[in-house]
Description:
Blueprint: E1 6-11, E2 14-16, E3 18-22, H1 25-35, E4 44-51, E5 54-63, E6 68-73, H2 75-81, E7 89-94
Antiparallel strand pairs: 1-7, 2-3, 3-6, 4-5, 4-7, 5-6
Amino acid sequence: MENGIKYEFTATPWLYEWLFVAMPEAMAREIRDNLKCLEEGWGRMKVTAKVGESKWRTAIWFDTKSNTYLLPIKAEIRKKEKVEAGKEISIIIWI
C-alpha cells in the first residue's frame, strides 16, 4: 500500500517520441485544483505509477494544450507489461 492520494484510471497510450497516456480531464482538474502546490517547474508533479504488476517512481506533466496531465510510460515498463500505442491499459498513480 502506497502513502498518498490514489487515483486509478484507464487510458490509451499514444506515441510521440515517448509513449504517453493522458489522464481523464476531470481527474486532472481535481488534482490541479487541490494539489497544484506540489507542482515543480513546467507543471511537473512527482508520482508513483503502476501498470500491471510494475510500479515505478516518475512524474506527470500538465499539458496546457490538452488541459490534462501526461504520464510517460518508460521502455522497461512498456516491454514488461506489453504496453502498445493504441491499446487501452489500466493505470494507478499515487501523489
